[in-house]
Each structure stands twice: as C-alpha cells, then as structure tokens.
Amino acid sequence: MKRVFYVVFVVVFTFCSTCKKQLDKEVAIYGFVVASGEPVNAAAILLTPGGGVKITGSDGLYEFSGLEPGKYEIKVFKEGFLSFNQSIDASDGKDKEITPILIPIAGSLSINKAYIDMGSNESNNIAGFTLINNGDDELTWKVSNAAGWITNIDPANGIVSAKGQEGVTIKIDRSRLSTNIVENYATLVVLSSTDGSVAELLVTVFGTGDGTNITISNEPFVIIDGLFVQTNDIGGLMRLYNAKLTCESSAVGNYNDWRLPTIGELALLYTKRYAIGGFHLEPSGGTYDNTGYWSCTGSDVSSAYMIIFYNGNQYYSNNQFRCRCVRESKPLPIVSTLSVTNISTNAATLNGRIDNQGEPAFTERGFVFSHIFQNPTVETDEYTIKRVVPGTSTDFSSHVEGLTAEQTYFVRAFATNRNGTAYGESISFKPTSD
Fold first, then answer.
1. Read out DSSP for 314-343?
2. Helix (H) / strand (E) containing 19
3. Which pLDDT belongs to residue 151?
C-alpha cells in the first residue's frame, strides 16, 4: 500500500506543478556562457526588458526565471571579449536555453572590468574604470553611447600609450534616473580609431530618480512611462463626479479616451510634477486644497482619493479638487527584419516590415547595420550605419552599396515613434559573388 500511495503522490504533484506554470504563464531563459569551449566566470548578463543583471559563477551558468512570455534581448559582457547580443522570442510560453559564445577582442584596447554597479546608495555617484593598451603602438580612443544620467566622463577621449593604461571616471546624476528601476542601465562603448578595437562596459544603478530628465513638451500632452498625460489642467476646482466626466469628454490631442488617473498613476505624476509642468503647486487663500488632484478607478466614484501636489499628502475626501487627465499609451511599433536580397560583392537590398504602427504612429523607419555589433542601434558611430527610408507604407526596402566582400554584416529594421525605437530581429548576411 505504501508503494501505491507513493506513486500516486508523485503523479499528482507533477501534474499540479505543471498546471501552475501554465496558469502563471511564466517562462525562463537560461544557459551557460562559454569561450573556447570552457565556461566563463564573472560574466555580466543583461536581459531586457525587465530581467535585470546576472553574474555567472565558475560553471558559467545563468538563469532568468518567472518571466512573462514575450520578446527579450540578452547581452553578455566580459572584460577581454566582445559583447554578445541575441534577440529571444519567448512568446510561445516555452523556456529558452541560450548559450552565449564569447569571442576575444580583436584589437589592442580593452577595459579592466565588464560591469559597474552604482547601487542604490544616493551618495555613490562616482565610479571609474581603466583602459588598457596591450599593443606596441599608441591608440586613439573615445567613449560613446552614454545614458543621459551619466553627466560626466573624464576624459571622454584621448590617447593611450603603447603598453600603457589610462583611468576614466564617470559621474551620474540620480535625479535624472527613471522612476522605473529596470530602465537604469547603460552600455558605454569605447572605440579606437587606430586599430578598430571595441570594448564595452555595462553600468547599472539599482535606484530610482524623479524623472527630471524628461523634456517638457510644447504639445498638449507628454508620454510618461507608457502613459499619456495632459500638460495642463482642464477646468478648475470640482467634485470627483464632475472631474471624471470632464476627462471622459476631453478631446485633447484629438484623442477621446482620456480618463482620471488611478491613485498609483497619480502618485507617478506627483513624482514627475516638475518635468510634466502645469500643476498647481503653490497654495493660495491659506489652504493646500487648491493644489489637490483627483484619482479614480474605473466607474467607482466612491474611491475619492486625492493627492495634494504641494506636499504629497494623500487622503480620502469629497471636497473640490483639480483634475489632470491621462490615457494609456499604445505599444511601440512592431517591426520585422526580412531576408536580405540582391546580394552582390559590394551591395545588397535590406528589407523590413511594419507589423504595428504604434501610437502615435511611427515618424521614422529604416535600417541599422554593422560589421561589429550583432544588434546595432540608431545611436550610430563609425561602426554602425543608419539608413532612413522615407514614407509610411508597411513594407520598405533600402539598397546599400560600398559593402566589403566576404565581410559578415548584421542588420536590423527599426521604427521610431514618440515612445521610443523598436527593432526587428538581427539577421546576418555576407556580400559575395556566389
């Protein structure tokens, strides 16, 4: 009897565990980082969006678990090696095993570390790294791709003597960090125009800011963390029911689906009140109430919570306050990189497709390609070429010339709207006469 009970127990446990994973719709991305067939210790793996950073141990193993099904991008950093990039489509809800294979830097310039974590300590705003020249000739170098919250790089360019080293200091401004902690990372790219060396350094800050790096728009709304926000109040002091109707009947920016923010969204607007602009922040008439703003959840007008924008206090009330309307931002454009055609010894035709225009609709589309970076971006440098394709049609192409025969290139289609830039999968091609 014990034997039968044990078998039944195991079957039930396994079944329930599988059901839970299906209900939760969680996926994992995992694997081993290797170089020359051996595991790589202390490599930094960045997973975006939202996955954070993992550091490998002596076995080279990494794992990101509890992820929602969707598209991700993995990037691996290790001193002395080129960074590894790969797009991952986990939309099918299945776990993905990715084995990054690192390639040594083919040049004389390197960095003494692959990863800097600035942490969450507000007093920790300065860090440094060392450039190393392993060659017999001096190298000219410069730093690119710095994030907006990295306010100073000293020096940002220079010359490293043969077999020499040079220290570089970076300084950050935490007030410029995003309120979304998973967005606070940057890749510093150090380029040498002397021998073509490329070295990369990952910088993360496990802290948040007040978003003051956001530029106040001249338009009647801005987009904050995926939320459209009107830049001016509509009307004056009013009760919650009237504030709700005012937002729902608003047609600012030719949109007709405005609403009052939830209490969480209103708290977000409070943290970014200076960047958004237009809020009443100074009390008048001896009361703070005229700086208060309503929140509301759906049709429930009994949830009469508000926030005083003068001091941030939150409480339940039924008095008269102001309203600032919001609406959800639609996703970034969805882009596909299609197969490269018309390949010759020095030319090729790049092809892409817009699967979803995004909201607002994309304002720029095209391609980025490089023979150095596996996932090139629109932040161009001498190793990345950006080709903008005018027009608004769904399918688009660009014929490029001046390519190097037998050189492997990596290309991605892109589309940009007010929310940012979206990329298609990275594909490779090689100009050849065959």
1. EEE--S-BB---EEEPPPPPEEEEEEEES-
2. helix 2-24
3. 83
In tens, the pLDDT along 275-307 reads 677 898 888 777 788 899 999 876 555 557 899
Question: Nearest-CA neighbor of 301 among 278, 318, 289, 322?
Answer: 318
- Element of type H or E holding 277: none
The answer to whether residues 410 and 391 touch, using CB atoms and an 8 Å cutoff, is no
φ, ψ of residue 182 to 5 degrees: the values are -75, -10
Closest CA to 190 of 149, 159, 151, 148: 159
Neighbours of 269 (CB within 10 A): 21
**Strand ranges (DSSP E) for 56-179?**
61-67, 71-77, 84-89, 96-97, 109-111, 115-117, 126-133, 139-144, 150-154, 157-160, 165-172
Pairing of strands 109-111, 150-154: unpaired
Residue 223 CA, distance from chain mean position: 15
pTM over 0.85: no
Question: Which H or E run includes 135?
Answer: none
> What does the chain come to in residues?
434
Closest C-alpha among 266, 260, 247, 278 to residue 307 = 266
> Quick check: 78 and 40 in contact, CB under 8 A?
yes
Query: Do 425 and 87 meet the contact criterion of CB atoms below 8 Å apart?
Result: yes
